[in-house]
Amino acid sequence: MVDVSDKPLTARRAVAEAFVSVEQETLTAIIDGQIGKGDVLTVAEMAGVMGAKRTAELIPLCHPIALTDLVVEITPERSTSGLRVRATAATVAPTGVEMEALTAASVAALTVYDMVKGVDRGAHIRDIRLLEKSGGKSGEWRRPEAGPVPGSVPAACAKPRAFRRRVAG
Q1: Domain segments of the chain as ranges
Q2: What residues are annotated to the active site?
Q3: Which residues, 6 or more positions from 144, have their beta carbon under 8 angstroms from its beta carbon?
Q4: The whole model's pTM is what?
Q5: What is the C-alpha separation between 169 and 48, in angstroms, rounded?
Q6: What is the pLDDT tens value at each position of the chain, 169 positions in all?
Q7: Fold adopted by 10-137
């Protein structure tokens, strides 16, 4: 584990995403709440939050940090036949929050897969990636091809946020 004891506390934020490809019929069933295991979007969003809170237990040498905000949004996209999972994490800490955002997106995507695998054997997860980060010595970073990140939350937002759900294209 890297020693961060001399680093100052800094407001930090990270945004990560994953994409779960499914058949159009599966996507419709998810949107309509017709998957036998339950409400895929709500369960997966909650799983992402729970996963992010356990990141230091899952990733060796990852520092445990207190999250000040965590939003997991899953947006069904008819045009690409899948679900875009976006996780935004924030903290005030001496180390970054990228792993928490990536873990949230990954666990939410895995949960979607688990809930639809019985009706869609071809479902698959792709493009797990960090989109942007801010805070700390390295400052701001944004994945060049990612463009603007809709729904980004300010660093160190202390109020809990309600889940938001959109259906795109």
Answers
A1: 10-137
A2: 114
A3: none
A4: 0.85
A5: 24
A6: 888 888 889 999 999 999 999 999 999 999 999 999 999 999 999 999 999 999 999 999 999 999 999 999 999 999 999 999 999 999 999 899 999 999 999 999 999 999 999 999 999 999 999 999 999 888 899 999 855 544 444 433 333 344 444 545 4
A7: Alpha-Beta Plaits (3.30.70)
